[in-house]
Every structure is written in structure tokens, then in C-alpha cells.
Design brief:
single chain; Rossmann fold; DNA polymerase, domain 1; two-stranded antiparallel ribbon; 8 helices
């Protein structure tokens, strides 16, 4: 099965964390630095990989629930503010693009595809990561999780891109790594391919019944 149909796509939407880049270690580092500041116990990188992908607020909620068994609004806000200050200052120390990503983005640019990064990560660190990895020039926009009042799995960020770049859902493809991406695309009526190497909140990606799973995006462009 190959639902990519890349020739007919005008617009390709990409998730960031777990799809384009492996950012888990930097998120883990910044979270433990934040917990140190607040004199809370530390967490492991494996735990962080299971908690990320739903936006920073929910990430902080997951950490607090694990550490204290509850989420007090004041503690949550304190951790969120501390984490964002630390992470936004240096979001790209060890973050790197996954194998095959640059090759696929080069193909997209060579074939005049409009490409947008649509992430639940706040826009500031998302743009900073793409700039520091010299990947920002591939994208006509980066839509962060704080652009609208809702984020994936709500379809609004995806449908915004479809409208903003003058195409339709049939000519758009979503590429992600998690159930949030699959659900957002499904609700928007957009075909979606997921990568097998992503985070997906520690769950088997097959459970959300994606249309297609690939190990490497280059399989979509190889002849």
C-alpha cells in the first residue's frame, strides 16, 4: 500500500518532534533542569519519550502526576513557566533530524512542494530548532501549538494550512508519528502517513489504525 501519491500533492504537512527531529534528549535535559530548580525529583529519558508530543502543558501535567500523584494549578504553572524559560533558551543542543529527512525535504523542494511544519510544540522553540539545524528554508510556515486555541488532534491547524496555501484536502498529505497526527488528519479529511520510529506517547502506532506506516521517508521517493 502506498497512499502518498506525492505527484498529486501540492502541500505536505509535517509534525516536528518524533517525525522530523529527535528532540527527546533536549526535552529530558530541560525538564530535569527545571525540576532541579523547583527541588523536585528527576525523571528518566524513557519516561520523557512517553510523555511528549501533546504540547508543553500536558507534558508538565504528566511529569507532575508521575512525581506527586496530583496536578495543582499553581505547581503546574510554576513548572510550565520554568521549563519554557529553560527549554526556549536552548532547544537544540542534541536535537538532530532523523535519517532520511533531509533527503526527503530536498526532494520536496526540488519538486516545488509547499511544506509546512505543524507541531504541538510552542512556535518559538520549533522555529529555533529548524533554524539551528538549517532546515527552516524548506518550510513556507511553521505552525506551533500556541498559534490557535486548539492543537492536534484538533484538525484546525491542518485545515488552516490547506486554506492559507490555496489548495484542498485531496492535494494535501500529513506526515507524523503519533495518534495525534493520525486523528487530526482523519478529522480534516487529509491522507496521513506515519513513521515507525517516532514517540507516540509510548503506545504502538498501529493501535490508531494509520493508513500507512514507513520506516524511513525516503521509501516514498525511491524508484
Amino acid at each position: 500500500m502506498n497512499i502518498a501519491n506525492l505527484e498529486q500533492r501540492d502541500l505536505i504537512l509535517f509534525d516536528l518532534d518524533g517525525t522530523l527531529v529527535d528532540s527527546a534528549f533536549d526535552l529530558y535535559r530541560a525538564m530535569n533542569m527545571s525540576l532541579n530548580v523547583l527541588e523536585l525529583p528527576l525523571v528518566t529519558e524513557t519516561q520523557v519519550r512517553n510523555w511528549i508530543g501533546k504540547g508543553t502543558s500536558l507534558f508538565c501535567q504528566s511529569v507532575l502526576m508521575h512525581l506527586t500523584g496530583r496536578v495543582e494549578p499553581s505547581e503546574h504553572q510554576q513548572l510550565l513557566d520554568t521549563f519554557l524559560e529553560i527549554y526556549n533558551a536552548e532547544p537544540c543542543v542534541d536535537t538532530r533530524p532523523f535519517h532520511g529527512i533531509i533527503e526527503f525535504l530536498e526532494w520536496g523542494r526540488a519538486h516545488q512542494k509547499k511544506m509546512v511544519c505543524v507541531t504541538n510544540k510552542p512556535e518559538l522553540p520549533a522555529r529555533k530548532i529548524l533554524a539551528e539545524l538549517n532546515m527552516d528554508h524548506y518550510f513556507v510556515d511553521t505552525v506551533g501549538g500556541d498559534r490557535f486555541e486548539v492543537r492536534k488532534p484538533d484538525p484546525k491547524p491542518l485545515l488552516h494550512c490547506v486554506e492559507a496555501f490555496g489548495t484542498d484536502v485531496d492535494n494535501t498529505l500529513m506526515i507524523g508519528d503519533s495518534s495525534n497526527d493520525v486523528e487530526a488528519a482523519r478529522r480534516a479529511g487529509i491522507d496521513c502517513i506515519v513513521v515507525s520510529y517516532g514517540y507516540n506517547h509510548g503506545e504502538d502506532i498501529q493501535l490508531c489504525k494509520p493508513q500507512q506506516v514507513v520506516d524511513d521517508l525516503t521509501v516514498l521517493i525511491s524508484k
